[in-house]
Amino acid sequence: MGSLGDRRSSDGESARLYLMNAIALVFPGQGSQRVGMGREFWQHVPEARVLFEKGSESLGTDLARLCFEGPAELLTLTANAQPAIMAVSMAAFAALQHEGITCDYVAGHSLGEYSALVAAGSLAFEDAIRIVRKRGEFMQEAVAPGTGTMAAVLGLDMQSVYAACEEAARYGVVEVANLNGPGQVVIAGKTEAVEQAIESAKQRGAKRAVRLHVSAPFHCSLMRPAGERLAGALRTIAIADPLVPLVNNADAELLTKREEIADSLVRQVTSPVRWEDVVRRLVKEGVTLFLELGPGKVLTGLIKRIAPEATALYAEDPDSLRVAMNQMKALL
Questions:
Q1: Mapping DSSP to helix (H, G, I), strand (E, B) and coil, where does residue 102 land?
Q2: How far apart are CA 183 and CA 206, in angstroms?
Q3: 8 Å CB contact between 97 and 234
Q4: pTM here?
Q5: CA dist., res. 57 & res. 34, Å (int)
Q6: What is the pLDDT of residues 205-254, one digit of tens each?
Q7: What is the average per-residue pLDDT within 25-31?
Q8: Domains, the chain, with CATH or none
């Protein structure tokens, strides 16, 4: 695999092959954290260790200790989980860069969109990790503890989930928050309204509908105060044109200009994460290979369901990165 410039040859035949073999890097969001994540990258990849050190200095927090030792209760806090996951995702990206592998598109699930923007050269790592810490704090503070929640609805079509939310809306705000893939939708809102929507979804034929263990109702209109505060924070950092296009969460559109980035990130706070649409858009753009960088392999599983014709790989440590690289080299 050559450089990005080599892949984007102007020759007609090369361009056709490029479109058939485009690579997208994708980055996970909150919920993927686990105690011990990133340790092997820190031990074996010097560039990854530098990233952890920069992140710790930027936040005034020992990110390595937080990721490697936890405890889980501390790591799971939104304001800690978001920068910790980003640090591990970017450590994986640094390891990938060390091997000379490039990409054609980037995307991320919720928080992962910030990791994607760092990978695309649109945000500096130090700025991004400070912003995601603030983002986590803003989202946590937008709704009083216990008054909001989220739930996963499985095995029910999207229209029926929307109908369940509409039926429960008389109890308070309840909205679709994540469109993760076929038959997998997450809703968010006021706790009583979400519980009513769960019951309505079950009556409409959902295989399963359960509350999630989250600290706030993300990606719904209750997050509007967080979005307003985030807009102010984003004005304090430099944003550059991404070196490769980002497919964003809010619209599943290609973003290539810095002027589009901040607005998209603010809208993302209150908009559903349209992950299924993101993956389908990338496939439409010619992506045949997805590589998930960061803790876990949740996105890899979703991509396999959304686009079984594509290849989805993951790299959460040096061993899985080595396996992914071998498969990539065999395919491209």
A1: coil
A2: 9
A3: no
A4: 0.93
A5: 22
A6: 999 999 998 889 999 999 999 999 999 999 999 999 999 999 999 999 99
A7: 96
A8: 4-142+223-331 (3.40.366.10), 148-214 (3.30.70.250)
Question: Any idea which residue has 């810095």 for tokens?
Answer: 258
Residue 16: pLDDT over 80: no
Is the preceding omega at residue 71 within 30 degrees of 0, hence cis? yes
Contacts of 236-240 with CB under 8 Å at 24 or more apart are 237/123, 237/124, 237/127, 237/130, 237/131, 238/124, 238/127, 239/122, 239/123, 240/121, 240/122, 240/123
**Bridge pairing between strands 105-108 and 22-27:** parallel
Angle 143-147-151 from CA coordinates, rounded to 5°? 100
pLDDT band at 6 (very low <50, low <70, confident <90, very high): very low
What is the C-alpha separation between 317 and 322, in angstroms, rounded?
Answer: 9
- Among 240, 61, 64, smallest CA distance to 136 is for 61
Question: Which residues are tagged catalytic?
Answer: 110, 219
Q: Could you give the percent of the chain with pLDDT greater than 90?
A: 88
Inter-helix orientation angle 275-284/298-306, to 10° = 60
The residues that bridge with 189 in the sheet, in sequence order, are 149, 174
Q: What are the tokens at 35?
A: 């105690």
The residues, any chain, with a CB within 8 Å of residue 61's CB and separated by 6 or more, are: 80, 83
